[in-house]
Amino acid sequence: MTNLNRDCLWEIFTNLEHDKKSLHGALLVNRLWCEVAVQFLWRKPFRFLYTCSKFCQCSEQKRRMKVKKFLATLTTILAHKHTTSSVNIQDLIIWTTAPMTTFTYTDFIRHLDIHDLVWALYDGVEYLRSQRFIIDFQCSSKPFFSEITWSTSTITWAESLFQKMACDLCRLLVLYCSNLSHLSIDMVNTKWSEDNQRCTSLPSISFWITVKEIPNEILLIPTYTGSQNCLSQLVEFTWGATHWTSNFLDALSKITHHLRKLVIDMSNFGRDESRKDAKRLSTLIKAQNCLQEIKFIKCKFRILPSIMEGLRTQAKTLRIFYFQGIVKDWSIFSEVKHLTNLREIIFSHANFQCNEANMIEQSYFPHLTKLSFNVCCFRDQTILPELVVQHSGKTLRTFTLTRYYYPEKNNFIPQVITTVANYCQNLVHLEIYVDRREFQQLMLLFASCPLLEKVKLTGNPDVADELFLRIANQELSNLKELFIDAQWRFCAKSLEIFIVKSRAPLKSLVFRYSPDFSDAHLDVLFRYLKEHLHRLHIGTDKRFSKGFLEKAKETIVDFRYKLNGQVHEPVWL
């Protein structure tokens, strides 16, 4: 491993770019590993600064000490690189007088999150104030800080210092971070993986909504000298502010024209719903030349039309459309129908409170490969994904319809599964909610979609022997992954008949919670899938024997077993 060349290491670390612990470990292997790993650690330094392990034990003091060290390193680099008089570098001398670092870390920065930057400055100044550094520095350094408002109050002085340092640090970052590709104002990205999440010592999001705003000195980033060079090549921007940042958006729209991904997240937006300010987001959309992916997350439905009006200008290039939130008094498909080059349409936790049927009837997406409705509520018994499939299902490769809600009356049975069977013969990946009344429809789907490789079934608690026996009548020669995300009971004999008759070459099996799964079920898997199965996750009420557990661990690469005392979600899922 230590003899791998730089290109191989780059590919490996690309898959570990969110794993701070592994990247830190790689620094110690040898010089080449260090040179590559350090570039990933400094791609998003402000985000990594507040990334901790799953069970974070950080205190406020420990967090601020870490921030102080980071700012000392950062300002050391900026101080040594800065040779002009456009920024008074003496304002940052409070952090460090150290010699130049081994690496010029600012050359590696690709991702800048504004909320993280603000917190870093707050934490740094608060650390100095708590250590009485500010009081001592105040007495000895007045000539360097002529623009700071001096006061006998340490708090007032700290706030003034923060504002001046925020301005100067942002000016320097804009000047010397010319490789920036990702910019964000992101409060929601609290978790990257199972082992990496936001530091728990940080105040809650509600603290930001009610108390703090992003200082103007930082929101002026797009207007500082060098911003044209720094921000003109951005490819991804996330707007998740807690309040309107209209001037910032106006300035960004004038210099950023190559975004490929734009995320508009109003989950924590805490101010008035101004259509005038919302149009700034629409202007930013219109300013792009090649936007490929857009996400709307919990946007206020009253201003959503104002934001989305710019989408038509991106109809030629837009490939992915994602929406989460409420649709009311306005059809979202009135705009989406114009995006005829879409490859993926995704709705998650969406509440459709208006009639979309007419607009969907007018829609056609000839290149659509993925359609997903995840936990959605429909106003009437017209199930919207069924209509989309009828018009654009021929090219679909992935279809998802997990738990959904509609007015239940007159013993209505949705026909979505039948529609997918009739229109989506090229389907490869299926995730679907199914109850007993729809078992027969599911048989039709398996018969009509021979290319299926990955299937995830969800539903209410039930006895599923009938389902397995029916599916067994279909030859599933391409099915490699099966995920039962439901509390279904079935006997070992039904499982055996399914595996033998369907001839499914299963490599991955997950039973999230099957109360009766026992040694007999495991024995069936060992006898018929021993050569194929690489992944097996089981949640059950039955305790496996020691012999079967040892055999599973020896023969299955990824084996996980959760003994459930009662119905709950296994932690490993």
UniProtKB/TrEMBL annotation:
<dbReference type="InterPro" id="IPR032675">
    <property type="entry name" value="LRR_dom_sf"/>
</dbReference>
<protein>
    <recommendedName>
        <fullName>F-box domain-containing protein</fullName>
    </recommendedName>
</protein>
